[in-house]
Predict the 3D structure of the following.
Amino acid sequence: MNRTPLLLLALAAACARQPRTEESPPTPSARTPWIRARSSEGVPVLEAPATVLPSPEGSAGVVPPYRARVVRVLVRPGQQVGRGQALVEVIMPEVTTAAGAHAAATTRLEAYGRRRAQLEALRGEGLVRLADLLEAETRQAEARADQQAAAATLRTAQIDPATAAAIVEGKAPVTLRSPIAGMVTAVQAAVGDTREPTGEPVVRVAGTGDSLVEARCGRFVDAPEARYEFVASSGARHPLTLVARAPVVDPKDNAIAVWLRPRPGSRLPAGLAGRLVVTLQAGAGAAVVPARAVALADGQAHVVAQRSGKPERVPVEVVASSGAEALVKGVAPGDEVAADAALAEPPADGAGGEPKP
């Protein structure tokens, strides 16, 4: 008799009688990884486009205040010039006329001054009529008025009225001077050219005034622990100090304008484009966690962290968030948090224990 079928039946019956062991529920670490929150030092909180603005004394275009004919060009591109240095010699009929009027008024003023002094001396002896003295005073006042009008014209052309007589005598040339200290970047004039006040600048000068960086942000982080840097396209990083922020949002791009200044002695070329990078200093009380580690419940953001070996909701404040990571306050660097809060939520009563099935 073949006993093999009977043996197989007996083995099957024995297996059927053995109790089935129940599977234990998964632990949180089995459903989602647990990771340690990282330090926030050096992690960008905000990045925004930024541009270096020209200083008020960062550039200047020199044009004649009146119609002028170029007589001599005194500078070339690439040359350093000082504030008030002569750049171009010109002939301006209005200035020459004003110089002549100033010199003539000065001569009359001196003459009437001497005449008045004589009349005052004779008046004490009763030898001068009051009308003669008043006439001298009137002529002196008229000469002073003419002198002041001519001086105003000369000052418009950046010419010291004291040089009016020298200009009339041909001893002092009429020049266009640089309003700032800097470097000549362009000379757009030749001898014999005639220039109008509304025309192109005769000379352009680039100065070295203090730099100012403007950034436009959808939001802005203004905190004592914030650190600001301008990162140029070359990768060079320049620390910045916050100067001011606009009190309103620009409706054109829904952005807030902020202005920052480089450290003293650090000058950035006007027009340089780059990025404003905002980070938090060490000890700012923030930590970096995965973006999915942050969940929202009842309007409050939280993470699930290990507390005494059990998962527990910990309220946090989201400082910044990117596609993969979030910068939060409420947990410290080194704390263990669930990489995905949705897979490690503790029971609804918050007493800890096994995770939700």
In short: The CA atoms of residues 122 and 128 lie 6 Å apart. The first helix runs from residue 4 to 17.
